[in-house]
């Protein structure tokens, strides 16, 4: 309202000043009925925060451009219009009042001399997507559920698990179209290393609807594979489910992918180095694959089969849908055999000159989580700054400095890093946390900007509503894991985040403004 009044006053004052100048056609200005090419509406959420939707003026027709994934009713049912008025002109209905722009609205402009009228018709339509290289413009939480709501047994706990997993199930998600597949290595393998958890293959695989996280009747077609064969699943950048097999005593690891839930698994080949190298079922969460690119054509598979003082990772190229046995070793320069015995990398591309993220734990005792942006020459050029959900952290606790505290469980996945190429732009999603909670931080690829959107996620509010307490013992869990994909043609993608002992959340991202 204030903005509209100030615009009108500025326009009137401008005309008044100009009218004193020689040659100003006062009568012509009073005859005007055009509003120019600037039109937008604003609306407010329950906290009073203002949001803006731009309009496109084409002759007498105005289209309010709104993201097709947003809540149109919430945005437009009581929105305030903002536009310029000609000198002395009046408008009906008054633009000072909000309107329901979910329906057609007409504004009639009467010129200042009262002799001319023009009617503008306002409707709404989908906004334009950002051009390639612009990244994404919109994100929102689709659904979040505790692990018990996903069909897994157990109860919320804060201490050690004993012989019941209670949500600490070494979970791996993978997108498959509008479904998300969940794989639990604990239920697939069991855990007999100081524990007495038997395999339960009925819980090893589950499938849910991405938008609602309601379990569906269809499961992933394993063909001749057994859940006990599988080390982990993930998906590539286009949404194909990918799995690596293997097991005890460095059993050979084979790579498979699925084009749909019902389709038979397609074997890509045998990885040149096994993924899982332990001789007992330690359920080491640090041994898993990540896939960058399209597994059916051009991709790179990365994993850490052993923990070394130099942080060595295997990178295997997939070309034309087949494995290239001439793998390379990526040396991060940070030891992976210290602190929580965890380190991972995530690639920003599929060629040998692609930069990558490093997820790292450092220090002694209550160690610190770190994330680094490395070049293809293994040089670190950026370090994740001290963010605590977007706010610089400076309370003097130097050992974790708001990037997160390491887990107390050896091999726990913290931090889990995701190098994301979304609409031609690099992003870094880091899943971290500290003793009693998890946090995810979404930044530009080189950490230079904090995005501060829905992907900067914390499940505690939902926990509080469901179980009456916020914050489970994340320090003793197997940590976090995530997956994502992007559809260039649809200008949209999905992201999933799993936090051990908590549950699963799914998100939508879109390049529509």
Describe it.
The protein is mainly β. The protein has 5 helices and 32 strands. The chain has helices at residues 2-19, 26-30, 72-76, 185-189, 460-467; strands spanning 39-44, 50-58, 61-66, 80-83, 90-92, 105-110, 117-126, 138-146, 171-176, 179-184, 205-209, 230-235, 241-245, 254-258, 266-270, 290-294, 298-303, 312-319, 322-323, 328-331, 343-347, 356-362, 368-374, 380-383, 387-388, 391-392, 416-422, 425-434, 437-444, 480-487, 492-499, 503-510. The strands form 8 sheets. Strands 4-1-2-3-7-6-5 form a 7-stranded mixed β-sheet. Strands 16, 17, 18, 19 and 20 form a 5-stranded antiparallel β-sheet that branches. A hairpin with a 5-residue loop joins strand 22 and strand 23. The radius of gyration is 27 Å and the shape is elongated. The two termini are 24 Å apart.
Output the strand order for the largest sheet. 4-1-2-3-7-6-5
Beginning-to-end CA distance, first to last residue = 24 Å
Helix content: under 10%
| Number of helices, counting only DSSP H or I runs of 4 residues or more | 5
Radius of gyration: 27 Å
- The global form is elongated
Extended strand count:
32
pLDDT under 50 segments (min length 5)? 1-20, 388-401
Structural class: mainly beta
Strand content is: 35-45%
Biggest sheet descriptor: 7 strands, mixed
The overall pLDDT, averaged over residues, is: 87
Oligomerization category of the chains in this entry: single chain
